[in-house]
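PROTEIN DATA CARD
Card holder: OprO/OprP family phosphate-selective porin
Chain length: 351
Origin: Alistipes senegalensis JC50
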Amino acid sequence: MRKIFTGLFFLLFLGARAQEPAAEPSVAELSAEVEALKAKTSTWDRILARLPEISGYVQTGYEWSESSSTFFIKRVRLNLTGAIAPKLDYRVQIEFASPKIVDAYVRYRPFDQLNFQLGEFKLPFSVENTEYPPLKYEFIEYPLSLRRLMGFDDICGLSATGRDMGAMLCGSFFKRKDFSILSYNFGVFNGEGLNIKDKNKSKDIVARLTLRPVAGLQIAGSYYWGEYGADYLKRVRYGAGACYDRGPLVVRAEYICGTTGLSGGSGELDSDGWYAVGGWRATRTLMPVVRYDTFRENTSASDSRLTNYTAGLLWQPVKFLRCQLNYTYEDYASRAASNRNVVSLMFTGIF
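Structure generated from the sequence above:
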């Protein structure tokens, strides 16, 4: 965009010169005009540097099972990012499918070892919630344990896409060419989800420690402690996982568990689940993936287990289009529920 504005200024300059009398300008006059043009161009460069970068995407598709058949719109996102100063930036991301602000924060980055972030953003919990946003994720749906224990479709009632409002310190140490060996995240949050003020006086605490011994490999542990609602109901989560993602190979696994206080004096519920992912970038545009994903909503009840077996194909023929096909077999331990076959197709248009 800067090149376009600069070119327009030069064309205007040449047009103005063409309309002037044919008298030969002096060297001093030409120099003055060139300096004036440079000053205008520099001013526009500074203005353009302050404008946000605009991007976004639309995700829509179709899902079929024995009990349903439906088209859907999953996400419609508009993303604005920019820099206020060399070490101070911001991000605003808006969801239009079900209108809400999903990201709105400012970040100060004085050193690699210490960064400060304030606003609404992803909770620093788990590998997939922090490292695999929708435009990078290989599947249409996130795993059950993440969705049910980290604010996507949480047992406690939150539906917040793994986000919350709060403040976070983060940083990294022992920097190598493409990665840092050790990194940390520590945050304090409301614990109530997107765009919602805290309903009690306590604050939720989230911590994550990540080790990257070699390029492509990360081992992470996460901890969440909080109290939600006016009744100060317990919400505690633990997570540990590992991921290797480099070259053609992707291998990832994670275990997440937690305790959730139930409303109405119903006690507490212990839940756990884990998943394992494998993928191979067969070509530059094509990637087959598989996932085993199991979750127990109540660890004391064996029939609360749901296990999903998913096979998928990711095809990205051009930079601005992702095509995903997933087949999932849902295996319910409970005799009261019927197992299902689910086929999903999703297209993502990126701008």
